[in-house]
Description:
Blueprint: E1 2-8, H1 14-27, E2 33-38, H2 49-62, E3 69-78, H3 82-95, E4 98-103, H4 111-116, E5 119-121, H5 130-148
Parallel strand pairs: 1-2, 1-4, 3-4, 3-5
Helix pairs in contact: 1-5, 3-5
Amino acid sequence: MKTELILVGKTTNKHIVACINDYVERIGHYMPFAMTIIPELKQTKSLTEEQQKTREGELILEKISPSDTVVLLDEHGKQFRSIELASWLERKQQTARKLVFVIGGPYGFSQAVYKRANEQLSLSPLTFSHQMVRLVFTEQIYRACTIIKGEPYHHE
């Protein structure tokens, strides 16, 4: 199963970028994994939040195929413990041709993106910066891969 992470806007903190890249490389040892960055919109001061979400949503939807299983990282999504996430991912590996995770822009997702999504996941009831969400998420996907393989990275 191919897996992709779509991000709106680039990660700007070089230390976080280095950590994300490390986890992306590690995940690649377990499954095909790619990151797609949608550039931030320009001249957003003239746009309302809704207009910005709509435009970002159009750009997100352009990257998604009809057969993709789309999972949004959203504060209202389902929360898992790491072991549960691993079980969920393992099930998806059996049923999805391509699994696409999406981290939206600063105002979240448009209604069109919510409508297209198959599921929503939340990393925590805490609020994280978009930069940190990317790091925490890639680490958790890596952790799920090691749990599935029975490797000692995760301890109960």
